[in-house]
Each structure stands twice: as C-alpha cells, then as structure tokens.
Amino acid sequence: MIADCEVIDFHGHVGRWDALDMADDPDRMLFAMDRAGIDRACLFNIFHPDGRRGHDLTAAFVTRHPDRFIGFAYASPLWPDDPVPELERAIDELGFRAIKIYPPYTPYNLDNPVWDPIYRFADTRGLALISHTGSEATCPPRLFANVAARFPNAHFVIGHSGNIEPHRSEAIAVARAHRNVYLETCSTFRAPGVIEKLVAGAGAARVLFGSDIPLMDPRPQLGKILTADIGHDDKRQILGNNARRLLHL
Amino acid sequence: MPSLDFHPTVPVFDANIGVGHRHDRVAPFAGPAELSAQMKAQGVDRALVYHVQGETISAIDGNNALLAWIGDHDGFTPQWMANPNQACLAQLQTLRQEGRLSSVRLHSTTDSHLSFSDWIYGDLLDWLADADIPLWVSLADTPADQIAATLGQYPQLRTVLVGAHYMHAMAVRPLLRRLPNAHIELSRYEKLGGVEELRDEFGAERLLYGSYYPRYAMGPILYYLHTADFSTDELAAVCAGNIERILLKAIA
Fold first, then answer.
1. Number of folded domains in chain A?
2. Could you give the strand order of the β-sheet that contains B13-19, starting from the edge strand earlier in sequence?
3. Which of A144, A242, B34, B187 is the most buried (most CB within 10 A)?
C-alpha cells in the first residue's frame, strides 16, 4: 500500500483497555492501516496471565483476517506451570510467529532468572521476542545486556526503544553491543530526530517499525518513519524488510 | 497511495511551537533561522510560537525573551504566556494596546502547584473573555477536570486545548461538549481513528494542527491528518484555516 515497500507493524494489541477507550475493533484497525499504508500488523494479548486465554483470543482475532494480522504469543513468569507446553501450542498449533513479554505486569526485572525458560524457548527455536521497555523499574533496556549474550539464537526486540532518554540511549548501546538485539519504534514520545538517532546508532537493519495499534493510531507512528531524514533503503528495512526476515515470512 | 516521501499538500500553520531555553531544558535549535529550516523541511509555512520559559518559571520573562527571540524574522506569530500574577496581566494588556497580542497561553498550573480555579485566575479570564482574546491551555500541564470546571464558567471565552493524549481519550469529547467555544490542537492525540471521530461529532472547524515542537516532531501528525478521511477543504482548515480565523478575530 506504500509504493514499492511492504509495511509490517511489529507492535500491536488484541484486547480491550476501557480506561483508555482502547478496543480491538478490526474494522477500525483495518481502516487506519489502509489509510496509513500498512500491509500487516503483529498482534498479542497481554491482559491474561494464564497464557491460554490470551492466545485463544489472539488466534480468533487473527483468523478473521489472516492476510493482514500476524499472531504473537505472550509469556509471563506469573504462569503457574511450565511455560513451554503453552508456548509450543502457540507457535506450533496456533501459528504465532514470535513472543511478547511485559515485565511491568510482573514483579521481576527482565534479567531475573525466572524469565529464563521463556528466553530459552525463544533461543532454541530462533524466535524473536519483543519486550516492553522504558522507565519502569522492571524493564530499562540496559538489562537486555545481561540476557542477549546468554541466548544468542533468540532475537530480542526492545519495544519502544526505551521510550525516553536516558533509556533510548541505553537501548541503542545494547543493540550496538549485541547482534541479536533490535530496536522497535512505537512510542507516544515522538521527539524530533528519534528515528535518525536509532539508525545512526544501531543501523537501519536493526530497527523495526511498530505502532501500538489499537492503543494508538498507526498513522502518526508511520509518519515518524516517513518524515525522518533517512534514505529510502533505510525506510524499507525499518518498515518491512527487517520484520519479514525476523519472522521468516 | 502513500509513498516513502511525505510532504504536505496544503498550507500549514503550526499552532503549537515552543522556543527558547527552559530552566530545565535546552532548546534543540539555536534560533529562528534553525527553526525556519526545520519547518521548511517538514512543509510547515508558519508557526504560532511561545517562549518555554513562560511555562513554569516566569511568563513575564518568557514574554520579554520571545520579543527578542523573534526579532524581525518572518513566519512566526508570537503567543504570550499568562499566569495569575497581576504584573503579568498588566504586561499582556500593554501588548494588547500595542496591537501585538492575538492569543495567550496559560502557564503550567501543575508545575506551578496552582489549581486552575476562577478564584485564582478570574481576573485573567475575565479580561480575556471581555476582550475576545483566545486562550491556549495544555492538557499536559493542567488537569482536565479543572479545565472543564473553570472554563465552563466562561462559555464565551474562545479556547484551544492543546496536548490531549491518548490518556485523555475518555475526557476529550466530554470537554468539547462542555466547552462549545473550545477547539482542540492535535499534536498528541493518537487515539485510533480519533481525528475522524472528533470531526464527525464536532466538525473540522474545531480541530487544529499543532506539533508541540520541540517536545514532538512536526511531521508525524501532519502525515496523520493527510491520511485522515478529510475532504480537501477540511484538511486545509485543520492545517491552517482554522487558526488563521481564530487569530484574526482577536486582532479584529
């Protein structure tokens, strides 16, 4: 829908968040994606700590428009059981392509060993794993430095690229130090020059477009990439090529 | 069809740009020439500018600094900061008498630890309403419930609510219903389908493009507006026509 460029949104949600008037209405999401020029969006449901219910809701949502939506698993150390069987179901049976974690919904820093079974699963399968990051105590991006080297076959995606400084610079530093770390762009903090800084710091091959749809309309988030002072080849990598490679599409 | 390059297709007047240094934040651009270059690169023709020193420390100092900052550069319309200090009101009244005032922006009541209440801000609001001067108020800097309660007592006062965020998603439409003379600037309003939703209920004439630069980049919201389900006339109004009308009425 953007000429000569496939656009894959790496960060989206399934579920409702009523206090923010957020709802996963597929018609509204597809309307905004069509207007923006987004071909496909990756979606996950982070609102159900048992794993199975969120996965079933994500699968049901994606199944309605499999050409436009890609399902991701959600995993948490709050799950009462071994996470591997449910992750195997999500990837092997439901067809999900990657894993999302959300440390602020847990008491555990993202480098706490309680996360290791989830990281080990991603490492064994060579999967991408995206985490929320930012100023919250559980998930400053610098903690990925303690994880990325231990699971070299997993591809760690720093959601929001830390959101704000100094966490954004931490995210870039981790990506520079570890070849299996990537930077995802969605953020309500749309400071000038952010995309240029990510590309200059880590290289366009390590930056992924995301929007946070339907929490946020994807159009301003896509506009961030299109109005950045970077070249067309860099934009193509960020908007779709990198995601297609990571997700084996 | 969108392309990898985006440029606005209508004239653009940015309703929300802060200039200068703040006590806790250094400006990312040195002066008017650098800001003009950034505006040109993003396809922004003109801007309403206020001095960020007036957000927290001193509206009076900020306004004096704005005069020096703009100098004789074209493309910028000054916006003057206001707080409840009587000396500030006197400064604004002088600027009005000199024909240099077309809008006023409320300082950050939150950072100033003041409630935005009529018993504190009444003199300022009475004067603005009587003189038909539009007031910009930031939802990033003043709580929505105080805006609703206080501005609800001044229904004739024309206002522009800036900085509404998705965190305000449940408050924006009730605010616009309660304040029929309020407009909304869209720099941070990223609710899914939000601009079309506001247009459908309130009309495009109550929507304004603003960037909140340098807190936020100029281009992303312009892309949003250009990919919104707007007619060409609606897009032109939101990007420039509405703010021109608001400011001209104050001068007239």
1. 1
2. B13-19, B46-51, B76-78
3. B187
pLDDT number for residue B72: 86
Residue B129, in any domain of the structure: yes
What is d(CA B252, CA B182) in angstroms, rounded to the nearest whole number?
19
Q: What is the pLDDT of residues B100-156, one digit of tens each?
A: 999 999 999 999 999 999 999 999 999 999 999 999 999 999 999 999 999 999 999
- CATH no. for residue B167? 3.20.20.140
Rounded Cα distance, A107 and A154, in Å: 23
Q: What is the CATH number of the domain that holds A207?
A: 3.20.20.140
**How distant is the Cα of A149 from the closest Cα of chain B, in angstroms?**
34
Vertex A124, ends A121 and A130: CA angle to 5°? 55
Q: Is A231 on the interface with B (CB under 8 A)?
A: no
Domain membership of residue A3 (yes or no) is no
**3-state percent breakdown (helix, strand, coil) of chain B, nearest 5:** 45, 15, 40
Provide the domain limits for residue B153: 13-251
Q: Is A174 a member of any domain? A: yes
Q: List chain A residues with CB under 8 Å of B169.
A: 20-22
Per-residue tokens: A21? 């008037």
Q: Check CB contact under 8 Å for B220 and A35.
A: no
Residues 175-194 of A with CB under 8 A from B: 188-194
Q: How much is the ipTM here?
A: 0.95
Q: Which domain holds residue A148?
A: 8-246
Place of tokens 């150390």: A77
Is the residue at A161 inside a domain?
yes
Residue A112 burial by CB count (10 A; 0-12/13-18/19+): exposed, middle or buried?
Answer: middle
- Assigned domain for A191 exists: yes
Residue type, A130: I
pLDDT in tens, chain A (249 residues): 898 999 999 999 999 999 999 999 999 999 999 999 999 999 999 999 888 999 999 999 999 999 999 999 999 999 888 999 999 999 999 999 999 999 999 999 999 999 999 999 999 999 999 999 999 999 999 999 999 999 999 999 999 999 999 999 999 999 999 999 999 999 999 999 999 999 999 999 999 999 999 999 999 999 999 999 999 999 999 999 999 999 999
Cis, peptide link before residue B11, omega less than 30° from 0: no
Residue B2 inside a domain? The answer is no
Number of domains in chain B: 1
What letter represents residue A122's amino acid?
A: A
| A198/B45 Cα distance (integer angstroms) | 28
